[in-house]
Amino acid sequence: MKHETIFFVNPIIQSYRRHKDRMSQVWHLTRRWFWIYVMDSMNAQALPQVTPLDRGNGIPLYHQIQRQLMEQIRSGALRQSDPVPPVQEIAARYGVSLMTARQAVRSLCDLGLTYSRQGKGTFVSNTKLEKNFRQVMSFTEEMKTRGTTPKSKVLSFRIQVAPAEVRKALNLSAGEKVFRLHRVRYGDNVPLGIECSCLPVWLCPALLKDYDTASSLYRTLELHGVFLMTASEVVEVGRANADDAKLLRIAPRSPVFLFTRISFLEDGKPVEFVKSTYRGDRYKIVNRLTRVRSDGATTP
After folding, report:
1. pLDDT: is 65 or 136 the higher one?
2. Domain 61-124 falls in which CATH fold?
3. 129-283 classified as CATH 3.40.1410.10
């Protein structure tokens, strides 16, 4: 009788265990799909809002997409080492061709904002800003074109007798006075460079009073009818001294770019002399060249 009871109970126990195992599997699968759904929903909500492209303003579509992606990088929506959305996704989200999407992504690589890895995709880089040598632009203008918020910390702003180097560069007479503006330049609150600008006082006598140091110097000059139209700039490499390193928050003797710039009015008169030190880990120098064919035409 005892053996018969065991024989009868065993199938029930085995059936219960099988049912329990199936229920456990169902529970684990349900929980897994629940969390997949939650994470997908969170990711969908985290995707930056897409601003519709303006197809009638004359600005190329790829450039409009580039600016939106730059803003996502600037705002932190896309962080260093984050993958940039695939070109297929960009094309679908903006309603453009794959060629246009590729051009937008490639332009970010050209600016040094992203880098591509074969077979893996495109990723946000440790951003280096490209120094623009093709236009006379203020630091403020240059930062804004790259979607970066500019800021300056004024170390000194005064009138003084022009040093010999400035006097020679600007063709000034002995004893002639200049404005000397010494600033640390920031992009998105990161110190990028130190600039020391000198301009003759006769150029804009009210500059010391009228210039808002939080704004663009070039813009202030333009409001006074002074337009800097051309410039010559020499680039050298060096190492940061202790004082500059402290202001730039880098180690002493870190690599830096040294810029010397002379800006001219439309009539060719030199009116601005600038010496700058910029971080080598945040800037790169890019020149785009053309080749002149033997028949005189240019080719890219």
Report:
1. 65
2. Arc Repressor Mutant, subunit A (1.10.10)
3. yes
